[in-house]
Amino acid sequence: MAGARRKLLLMGRSGSGKSSMRSIIFSNYSAFDTRRLGATIDVEHSHLRFLGNMTLNLWDCGGQDAYMDHYFSTQRDNIFRMVEALIFVFDVESKELRKDIETFVLCLRNLYEFSPTAKIFALVHKMDLVIVEKRQDVYRALMKSLEDTSAMFSFQVQGFATTIWDESLYKAWSSIVCTLIPNVTVFQKHLHTFADISEADEVILFEKTTFLVISHVTNARSPGFRSDSTRFEKISNIIKQYKQSCNKLRAQFQSLSLRGSDFTAYLDTMTANTMIMVIMSNKTDSRGSTDLLGNSEINGDSDDSFASEAENNIILANIKIARKMFEKIEMMNPDAR
């Protein structure tokens, strides 16, 4: 079966930060590395394999006025036809915000004609340059204007406040990409099953290259894990930086096990295109974990090292057993659910 292609337009005025965020998410740049990037010339095409059966066809459109004029005149059909999503980047400190919004309106007008079912996302970028106390007000004011404008063309716009200097960029792009994955609800269903059988407090499924979050499950009995709403994106950021450090040392990152005073975290490969993180509370009772074949391991009176090793083996066994199912989901026809 031919893989699904998703055309994404990444647009915004020159200097808004489009290429920097693309390089961080998809090309493993650090925020510091983006300082050496130059301006985008016309349209840069990137074909990014995402999961087993989907390709993101990302069009990074240069924001200089000369290029913009061509997009909205001679290249309209080529640029705006068959678009799955528009990601429009606003520089929060732009001196020409009115012109930025006018450009956004032109994008909506052309999408309404050529791709009326396209999803619309607005990234209010470089929020680190705004005083903390004013960030919410600045963001809400701009989004109110964009929502009213989008409604005129029967579009709903979803907004994100972002900066390359924290996890907000990963949160935005994870949310965007998840709307494009046809089998995301199937991933979620089976991740719930995995978490229940493993008695995990939290399970997160990441795309392997970008480390964007595909799906996650949190045990209702573990309210402490929900205290930080950006914890998944922070993990993405940290692990990706760690992978970059491994690459610099010519070492290959494969898995990770981290044991703290209250929890143990396991990160391992789930499929060729995904990784899974399993968070387990360090147990002090006799419940123990159960593997996917129904075998139990009792932790009660065993010493800590033995219990830790037993739990480690069960979690890794569960991942191994679940791997074939998740591989099937990746390649599943979205109509066969």
What is the secondary structure topology, with strand pairs?
Blueprint: E1 4-12, H1 18-26, E2 43-50, E3 54-61, H2 65-71, H3 76-80, E4 85-91, H4 97-114, E5 119-125, H5 135-151, E6 157-161, H6 168-178, H7 184-198, E7 202-207, E8 213-218, H8 231-248, E9 256-259, E10 263-271, E11 274-281, E12 289-290, E13 296-297, H9 304-330
Parallel strand pairs: 1-3, 1-4, 4-5, 5-6
Antiparallel strand pairs: 2-3, 7-8, 7-11, 9-10, 10-11, 12-13
Report what the structure shows.
This protein has 337 residues and is of the alpha/beta class. The chain is 38% helix and 24% strand. It contains nine helices and 13 strands. It has helices spanning 18-26, 65-71, 76-80, 97-114, 135-151, 168-178, 184-198, 231-248, 304-330; strands at residues 4-12, 43-50, 54-61, 85-91, 119-125, 157-161, 202-207, 213-218, 256-259, 263-271, 274-281, 289-290, 296-297. Helix 6 crosses helix 8 (231-248) and helix 7 runs antiparallel to helix 9. The longest helix has 27 residues, at 304-330. The two termini are 16 Å apart. Residues 296-302 have low confidence and may be disordered.
How many beta strands in the DSSP annotation? 13
Poorly predicted ranges: 296-302
**Percent of residues in helices:** 25-40%
Query: What structural class should be given to the helix and strand makeup?
Result: alpha/beta
Order of helices and strands: EHEEHHEHEHEHHEEHEEEEEH
Q: Terminal Cα separation, in Å?
A: 16 Å
Spatial ordering of strands, largest sheet: 2-3-1-4-5-6
Number of helices: 9
Major β-sheet annotation? 6 strands, mixed
Rounded radius of gyration (Å)? 22 Å
* Mean pLDDT reading: 85
Share of β-strand residues:
15-25%
Rough outline: globular
